[in-house]
Amino acid sequence: MTMKLYQFAISHYCEKIRWALDYKGLHAEIHSLLPGQHINTIRQLTRADSSVPVLDHDGHIVQGSAQILDYLDATFPDRPLTPADADEKAAALAWEKRLDEQAGPAVRCYSYHHFLQRPKVVVPMLAAQTPFYNRLALRLAFSRVDEIMRKWMKINETTAASSRQTMEALLTELADAYRSRPYLVGDTFTRADLTAASLFSPLFQPPQYPVPWPKTDRIPAEIRSWLQDWQPQLQPLEKLYRANR
User: Fold this and answer.
1) 219 phi, psi to nearest 5 deg
2) Angle, in degrees to the nearest 10, between helices 86-98 and 65-75
3) 0.90 cut: is pTM over it?
4) At residue 119, does pLDDT exceed 80?
5) Spatial distance between the Cα atoms of 218 and 191, rounded to a whole number of angstroms
6) pLDDT value at position 124?
7) Residue 47 scores a pLDDT above 90
8) Is the pLDDT of residue 106 over 90?
9) Which long-range contacts (CB under 8 A, 24 or more apart) does 217-221 make?
10) Which of 74, 129, 139, 150 could serve as a FRET partner for 190 with CA atoms 20 to 30 Å apart?
11) Domains of the chain
12) pLDDT (mean) for 125-154
């Protein structure tokens, strides 16, 4: 059996799958790609979209974090992340879909808006786990990289402010949910919890995440202040991460 995961080290959607593989005790060869340069590689695999993560299992290609979780649970049923009960399954999938569509883009937009203003900090994160010369290439072309990323992901002052509001609303709801029960759905850890903790994990910088996190004083001031204010709401997700990652 050969399993390969094509990813960005910095991607929180890819972290969902890294975590799922580890949770299930599965080994995959990790192929970390540089954003932008990844397009040809991924399109050759998928014959379609260039988004990551992409899983190649003995030539069977699965793209997208939710679809990969479906595949892993169907193919490797030990330690399932999808509940067997129909109602709980529907609830877990609904949480995942909502978080994928709202939390993931919001965390990405808000974080990149501020970190792209710190090239020396963000370049090593973007190039993590790729050949060393990619860092130099990114530094030399950073103004163009910044322009492309902001255009591609619609990142600007207005969208960053809207993303911050989305993050705060979801974190408030998640904190309330975890205050009354240990898991979002049922009485076990599911893909709903994995998705919530993965997509917000860049905000609490877990050591298992394979990027060189910046030291506190190198985090943009606006984010640093926000993190201080929202620590209580982030703590339940950080606790989930420590207990299950």
Assistant:
1) -75, 135
2) 150
3) yes
4) yes
5) 33
6) 97
7) no
8) yes
9) 218/118, 218/121, 219/121, 220/114, 220/115, 220/117, 220/118
10) 129
11) 3-75 (3.40.30.10), 86-244 (1.20.1050.10)
12) 96
